Amino acid sequence: xxxxxxxxxxxxxxxxxxxxxxQELAVTDQTINYDDQNQPSIKVILxxxxxxxxxxxxxxxxxxxxxxxxxxxxxxxxxxxKVEKSKLKGISENKMDLNAKIIDKGDYxxxxxxxxxxxxxxxxxxxxxxxxxxxxxxxxAFLNDFLPGYYEEIVENTVEKIDELEEDENDxxxxxxxxxxxxxxxxxxxxxxxNKIKDYExxxxxxxxxxxxxxxxxxxxxxxxxxxxx
Length: 230
Known about the structure:
Layout: H1 2-20, E1 25-34, E2 37-46, H2 50-65, E3 70-73, E4 76-88, E5 92-105, E6 108-116, H3 129-228
Antiparallel strand pairs: 1-2, 2-6, 3-4, 4-5, 5-6
């Protein structure tokens, strides 16, 4: 009981902060229409998607209350998860139905927790104040167990993503540095090749002139031989 009170105080403090900062989390007393009846509910507004919340709620209820939660599982994804005719320790010694309507609302999830002891015997803060208060404490306990781990996983995934991006960035920088070194090396080689080409062009021109002279000399020699043989 002492732990439940601490949880309640803890979340009462932080819920105010969350409600004021982007509606990341809020818990309020509301009324829900279910089976054509208006029933008191504990409404939770939270960020994780509805399927994630459903699975977490099912697992948490099964672990902490040893009950079967119907509505989510193999080929099942209903809006309302049901615990039927079960004794929920810490809430009531009597068998009761406990329902959780969990639906997506755009960029957040809406969760309504409501219970009853039978037709028209809803867990109401006026008729069953103790049971209603305990049911709300259960909601806070679920949020306390679920949300920190959920956000921690998000943080870890983001940290891992940042690490990978930083590694990719460093690899790219190293590759760029290598390319620049290679470019500088190629520039030097290109300068050397340019100078060689100029040198080759000069020598080639000289060789062509020499070839013309040699051919002219050859013609002259041949002509002189023919004249001398007359």
